[in-house]
Amino acid sequence: MKLKILGGPMREDSEEYQNLISFCQSSGQEISLEWIDGQYWLHSDDPKENPVSVMIDRELERHLSYFKKSSIHKEILARALGIKSGVRPKVLDLTGGFLGDSLLMLSFGCEVTTLERHPVVSFLIKSALANSQHPLLANLNYIASDAETYLRAHSSQEVIFFDPMFEDANEKTLPKKEMRIFRSVVGKDLDAKDVWALGLSCRPKRLVVKRPRLSVALGNTPDILFEGKATRYDVYLPKE
Ligand SMILES: C[S@@+](CC[C@H](N)C(=O)[O-])C[C@H]1O[C@@H](n2cnc3c(N)ncnc32)[C@H](O)[C@@H]1O
């Protein structure tokens, strides 16, 4: 059996179970999910590593308490998105993952639509959302979808945010634990350049691409760069 479910309410005749089984069968991957604290978590193939997921309410509270002491305007992601006093753009996050960036954007005060195409990651997001009740989640619209399909049907977007798993030779640092597990399950997003080009062709006010600091840009030279210690945000302004 390639799918292992440890505890929790999932039934073998449910649609979600069947989706996960189909993914395991078609990809040949072994997936192990454990029910902990009211939601499912993903085990890595290394038994020494703890399972990963996101505790959404806790993460949002952590951000909100941080922003009581520190200004949102100091955050490079906020500046990359074009956040200013009284300005909170609507963001389409094409790459949900464990919602790290979406939750940060929600805590900035943005309305966020988040997409995720991978069936296992999407299952984990839905499980985490069902275990959450933070009021800020009223501003989050989660959709299990591929970015290309969604953008072709909804091309009018204010700000598009894109954080694909896409490496280049300049990445020298080892990925964080969550990223390693992610990479083992999700693999590389080999269509990232095409998605970037499609996002740009939708002509949002901004297209923000998250990259490791030292890596090359996904597409053309960006109009603005925001650099942090390990991360860089490449901002494209297709309307200017
Ligand atoms: C690097 S992770 C994103 C991490 C996320 N920003 C966070 O903070 O947790 C990339 C995720 O985006 C998803 N993804 C990549 N390309 C996508 C696409 N074209 N459409 C939808 N989801 C995509 C992958 O399946 C993966 O879960």
Descriptive report:
- It is a single chain.
- Strand 2 and strand 3 form a beta hairpin.
- The chain has one domain: 3-Layer(aba) Sandwich (Rossmann fold).
- The model has no long low-confidence stretch (mean pLDDT 92).
- By secondary structure, the chain is an alpha/beta fold.
- The longest helix has 14 residues, at 56-69.
- It has helices spanning 15-27, 56-69, 76-81, 100-108, 119-130, 147-153, 177-186, 192-201, and strands at residues 3-6, 31-36, 39-42, 91-93, 112-116, 140-144, 159-162, 206-212, 224-227, 231-236.
- The chain starts with a strand and ends with a strand.
- The structure holds S-adenosylmethionine.
- The site of S-adenosylmethionine has 20 residues, from helix 4 and strand 5.
Question: CA-to-CA gap between the ends?
Answer: 54 Å
Bound molecules: S-adenosylmethionine
Helix content: 25-40%
Question: Could you tell me the strand content as a percent range?
Answer: 15-25%
Quaternary structure type = single chain
- Tell me the total number of β-strands: 10
Large-scale geometry:
globular
The CATH class assignment is: Alpha Beta
Would you identify the CATH H-level superfamily?
Vaccinia Virus protein VP39
Please describe the biggest sheet, giving its number of strands, its sense, and whether it closes into a barrel. Answer: 7 strands, mixed
Radius of gyration, CA atoms, in whole angstroms:
18 Å
Low-confidence stretches: none
Tell me what the CATH architecture is: 3-Layer(aba) Sandwich
Helix count, DSSP H or I runs of 4 or more residues: 8
Structural class: alpha/beta
The helix-strand sequence is EHEEHHEHEHEHEHHEEE
The overall number of domains is: 1
Mean pLDDT: 92
Major sheet strand order: 6-5-4-7-8-10-9
Q: What fold name goes in the CATH topology slot?
A: Rossmann fold
